[in-house]
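Late entry, written up from scratch paper. The run itself happened at the end of the previous shift, but nothing got recorded in the book at the time, so transcribing now.
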Amino acid sequence: MTARAAILLLGLLGLAGPARATHEPDHRFIVIGLVTDGGGRGLPDIPVVVTRLETGLAYRTRTERDGLYLAVIHLHDEDEGDRLTVSANGVTAEIVARFAMRDRRSERGTRLDVRGRAAVEDRRAFAETLRDYLAR
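Output as recorded:
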């Protein structure tokens, strides 16, 4: 197991973040994405903060060498529709946690890229991006 896979596993199990009950897909919401400069180059070691607006709880992570980041947020079914802010590289974007509450097996999440000074959310790219990340 690579170091990245071990860290992700710990994060998904909730041992590396503020919440410890993220061991099942219906107890977590994943925000994944790239932070790039204006030319599209990934920015390494950039702090990324995802904050639940309702509670003020902040989940902190950093971009990897290629600019990719992943944050595991502790959310339950009743939290569907919660507003989150994602802040990275001087850009802050608000997103809404959307997922199928009856689906307790599929990972829940979204992809949010920070491209220069713009944030771009692409929910449809989430599953593929997470799959590619886990396959590294």
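The two ends are 11 Å apart (CA to CA).
(Scratch paper discarded after transcription.)
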